[in-house]
Amino acid sequence: MNSFGELKLSWVESENYDAIQYIDNSVLVFKCDSFIKFFDTFSKQTFCYSSPGEGVGVLVADTKFNLVAFSEVFPQPRIFVHTFAKFEQKAVLKDELGDGAELEYTALAFSHEGNYLASYSGVGDFKIIIWNWQTKEILCKNSVGNENGPISSLSFNPTNWRQLVSGNQECITFWSIERSNKNHFINPNQFSLVLDDSLLSDEEYKSADSHPNFSELKFIASRDLIESALNCTEWHEKKNSVVPLCHTWLPSGHVLFGCKRGEIIKIDTETHTTEIFHQIPLGDDSVLDCAINVILMHKNGVYVATDLGQIFCLDLTSSHTSTRGQGQKKDQQEEEGSLKTVLTSEAKLLSHLYTNESIASGYFSMYYDKIVFRTKNGSVLIYQPSTNSVEVYEDYSCGKFSFAQPIFPGNDMLATVREDGTMQVWTMDVHKLVGSIALGQDKVTCLESSPSCGVVMVGTESGYCLCVSVVSPDNMHVIHRIHVSENPVSSIKFSVDGSFFMVGCGTDDSLWLFNGCASKKFETIGYLFVQGTVHEMDTFKLSDDTTRVIVTSNPYPDDPKTVEGHYRYTQIDVTSSILKKSSDCFESAKGDLKESAVNRISMNLGTVNFGCQVTPDKHLLFGTHRKPIHAIKLIEEYPKKPSERLAPMKPAYTLPGHGVVKCLAINGNKKWLASGSSDGTIRVGSLDSLDANSVARVCFHLESGGVKQMFFSTDAKFLICLGQDGVVAAYKIMPSGKHKSVQNECASLQKDFISRVLQFSKGENEALETMKSESVPMQVIEDMDSSNAMGDDNDDYRVPLPNLSSDPTCKELALVAGIKEEDKSYEPMKREILSEIKYLRKQHEAMIESNEAAPDIEKLERNEFVLDTDDYNRMKAEGDQQVAKAYESLELENLAKMFVRSVMKQECWDKMTIKGKSLRGFGKGMIVSNFPLCERSEKEKEELAFVTRVRKVEMVDAAAAKQDKRDYITFATDSSTSVQEGRYDTAYRGVAPETQDSPTVPNSHGGDGTSVSHNGGKNTTFDSTRSHVHDGETYNDVDDEEDETAEEQQEEEGEAVGVYYSTDGSLSSKYGGHNPLLYPQLHIHSKEQKINQIVLLKDSIHSLKNTFNKDFDEVFRGKEQEMNRINDRNARIGKILSDLNMDEQIKNVDWTLEEKPEENLVVKDSEVKVERYLSPEMKARLEEEQKLEEERRLAALQDNWRERGLDQMMGGVLEIRKEDELKKDVPIPAFLAAGKAEAEYTAEEKAAKAEYDRKVAELIEEREKFYKQLEAELRKLQQSNSESENSFDEQLTQLFNKKVQVEIAVFHQELKIVRMQQSLLVEEQLEREEAAILKDLEAVKEEKLRAVANQRVATNELNDYREKYENIIAEDRVLDRNFRKEFSECSGAMIDALQKQYKRRPRGPKALKKDVDIGMGDGAGVGNPYNERPSSAMAQQNAREGLFRALEELEAESYAPEGIDLAVWKKLCDYRRKKLQSEQEIKMRAQRMAEIDAFLKRRGEDERAVSEKVERLQTNLQRVREEKHQRMMNLELQLLMRQGQVEVAAKDDFITEFKDSLLVHRGVVEQLNSKITALGDQKIESMNESKEFRKGIYQLEWERKKMIMEIEDLLQKAKDIQRLKVTKELQFYLNDDDDDDKKSDKKAREIGVLEKTISSTLDQHSRRVEIKKDEVKRLKKKVKDKEKQNDKLDEQIMEMTVTVAERELIQMSTGAGSQGPSEQSRMKDIVQRRKLVDLAKNQAQEVAVLRAEVERLRMRTFPALVQIE
Q: Is 493 strand, coil or helix?
């Protein structure tokens, strides 16, 4: 039962105005959190109403019928429809079947007629619902899906309510509502605003082409992987799409969209043609290039508002258009839901206006004469299109309200602070902003106003307390700043009379007391320690001069787990003596109050408290986490028992609560209690009977956090509430019955209080007016000046003051004041003590100086002069503590760095099974690196093991299948057929018949060829003399012999390495990467095979790298050996250079960091440039090591018999070296050293001198020989070093070449992996495309079923409606037939006149025009662009009403025939009206039936369209499946070809394109080459025949010339014969007949003898040659044997030489003490033997060097048996 009264909402203020619209021509409506606010711009009146539901979600207004609709913020929300007048509820829309929104509505829209309401639900269901709000029924609905997210705008077509448009930044959707009798259907048509490429500028297209993924997309498209990949790319869509932000309808039914980049798009809803307005001119040679947030249609043009505050009026009707790209891809656009685009280049600017605000939304008024704009910072602008001017309605600061407080006298003014630091003052009754001030960027933490003067205290996060004067609210200013603490100010509370105020700050554990009088400049009184952060405070009067303060604090503000049960209760009494700063009340001059002076009592409160208020019966009320309100009795004195002091305080009683009470308020006479909870509910009631006398109201929404702050006005007429969401609401309290007297009592109390403090408040306000803004208080400046004067000599007795900052806190100032006060009070005593201290200091310094001059034995330690050992120890401890802290911080820093180092080492070094390192050559700059390898993960190992098992099973299965196939072929056909089939398969696959079914593909050797990736699809043709491969059919015309030759050649090439590289596509098998488990390239079809192949290829790459790493390690070890040898030689070279006194630089070899990367992980001492820190433990350990080392050194210096014996017996050396002996000079005789003259020499001296000269000459000769030997040895060693370096560099070069080949092989395998992965991606894309098509196909099939069902229902409805229509027509005809029967009592002439009047009808168009004019009203159609095009429903209704209104005129008696009875005329009028109603009904029924028939036809068209769509989807599905099958069977091969086998010319960038190439069998080329060779031979033969023929011609010509010359010669001989004289000898010769025969026989015999001699000689010669050859072979064999024996003998000689030398050395050492020849002769023998030994060693070394040189030269002459490929 509620007998208290009523809480009436007076006004509401929030952060900004959301969804502001016109509901009338002058009334604005907008929402404020859970409230709806109306504002009349003419009368400046505000009307506020609370939401009848749970908050306010989306709000929309209808200006025509003054309606407002809004949704609630609650699961399964309702929609409320109210009128503006008295906020009357018209309808509550909620689907009882649960088909409404699940969670929220995101958009609402009224139709132009106001009868229909469209709603769009958001997350949860995403559907659009059309309501008839008058009947509260759903006409139709449709689910839209969530692909593009919720919509941001929704509107009806003003000229046709059956058309809607919705949109967001992703897409737009046109909705069409269709009707079939009583059933309504809504159908979507969704589009994405994507521009064609033809509409992009060159710069935009280039920027799109330069995108990093653009080339890849073009590559995919060029390979025909996915035909629509480029068009479907998300980036491409976003690049070419426009982003719609707002829209408006044109009278023609078109829609204008304003976009993010300044475009305006016009879309035809029928043809879906789009006109795009680019580069809209602004009149100043600039174009519109910012976001359009508002676009509205007006009769004058299109009004556009942007986010830069620009308002334009544009004329888009006079633009010039071009149809570039309009008709391209029409079918595809219609299928994919694209828009046909027409580019528009111009738009005319009619007017423009610039504001300083970013405009967010805008709406027209009812008469289209004003536009209301809402800016992004919360202000509201009213724009007048007629004058092109803007009026600022509200310009409040943007930000939520943080705090609110009434200001003196507390019943008419209210102070608020927003989040941005703006303080505002409002009138409480009429809600008007009267003043504002910006407090700065510092965050406000609390607010409190003085109850006795016009000052407001504002606490900030930086610890300041700002004093703001509000005496003149329109001229507020900060008059004083108090820097209380470095921590945020948590709470401020004034006393009841305003004489003082308390300030609590953060975690300072202090409560500060300040004077509340401006005349005292709010001086600091003192402070008191409290435990924890101050939470709540309240004050009340105990007596006239004593005020009690109740403080609750939280000792653990940062620990939410320990909050419950640890809140503290503190009670203090502030008396007038404290305010007067009596010294008896303070502990010291620092301002710390005595607990006895304030009568402090501190207890354990035991629970969390909210909103502490003190009741008249001295109980403390507060809310907790639980529902009841606790009341704790105030404590007058401490409990006597200590246990009671520690125990939590128990409540004396509890009051009923509501939810979790977060704040409490008590009115001035302490009779009413107001409480606010976290669920947003407020309750006001009588304090003594809260259950029976209270009223509750839902003020804020639950999700906003509930109530934050609330308080009464001093006259108890208003209750001010502040929500957690920053909304301020003022409720007017309207009590009933006896509770009205409370307000009267409060008013009288307020008057009494004002009269009491009037004079005081007047003086304080005058003081406030005189105070100016201060950045630093005056007392701070004085303290700073005094602190700066501490350097005088007279102030030495003073305690040093702390260094104050430029703005010190109250605690720092109190500390300085306390120190000064102590200095002042104890000045004489301090001066006396100071003089004594000076005297003692001088004596102490003199003692220290004398101690320094004393001997060491008498000198005291420095620490013995420390007088104050405690202070010394303290300072030392502090220093040690600082060192320890620094050490700890450095140690932590080092630890962090060590952790990072360990992580990096673990990830990049320890996990590497093979560490990465390089190998550098000696002479060249060549560097070869190995392959770093990580350890394989368990997953990779398991995957490889699984694939290995699978492949082994497959290979066994394939071998069994192959054997079965061979058995079947042997049984079915003869062997020749089998061989022919094998050759056919070889010709096609390029593999040997016996290996074509093996797990690896045998390939031809590829050498240094090129990796060719060739498409094995339809473009692949193996052209080999009429041998083609087309779609799996082979026609082979190659000769069998040529095929066999090619097969044998392939087998010979692959015999060396066991694999054919060309068809394998990689050189991996040649370099250790061969894996017999790899699939042949022609056998990889399925997805699983490709995945397995990728795993095996990765294993092959790993094997390749491992194999190379082994070779690398071997070469690395070789370099290590060579470096050791070179370093040994360098040591010898250094010794030789020192012996030769030569200064040459020795090239030492050492490892680099690239070769020994592990050295990077070790920090050497030489790398540390700073002094090393040694801990005490390390110092002790080093001292111990040094002590041990010193002991060892001293022990070594003692008597050592080994070294002493070596020195005495062998001169300190074990071996006498020749070079050491040669360095010794021949001892000079004494007489020569004395400089005795040669003439004075005795015989012995002469002999001694001769002996000395001989020894000197021999020594010089030996030295020269030794130097020559050393030089020869030096050259040999240097040559050996050079040869070793060159030899290693050659090995490194070979290793480098091998790595290049290995990398090529790795790249080959990686290329295979990439191709496999690309193929898998394409297959996955095809599978996704297939799944999407199947999904679309299922949806389309369901749509087809729905279309068929709708068509069936429409057919039945049409049949039923046609039957009813025919019945109505029949009834109408009955009326005509029964006319004469109805008027049978009248005469015939009268009946004719009546029939004429019966057929008379009023003029419909005039009546309609008149009705339309009446419906528009005065001034309604001034700017409304839709008045000339009323909706069809409105036009029909107006025509019907106008028709019957005109019919009433025809029913007047003036139109009646003369002499007719009035009853008959009335009967005629009724009969005619019935006839007219029947005609209208027939007309309406005909229209309705036409609608049903049209609906039926459209459903038939839809059914056919859906069928066509099903066919298209099935076609696409078949295409995708065929492409998948084609990709599975039409394989792509990777071939490795020789350079000479690639006959395709390279194009740009040396990249060969093999798209249109042919892969021809090698036998075809060889056959062609053989034919070319044969034809060439034939040509050469014919040329030879021609040459011989020509040669014969020349020969005949020569013979002809010869014969001519012979004729001439014979003629000359004939002449000579005729002239010859015949002598006797001539005659005798001529007469000798047998001479010729004898001569011929003799010659024949001689010839025969010679021939026999020659033949016998040749035979003997051949036999001798064979004998010599055999002898040469035997001799060569003997030479080899002798050489081997010589080698063995050489080794034996070297060993024996060493042995002999050792034995001689032993013999010499053992025979030193035995009797023998003289010492000189023995020395001579030793020297001679040593020379021989050295000579033998040198000769042995020379022999070894020469033998190595011979071997090297012999190896150079060996033939290089390189395989010629």
A: strand
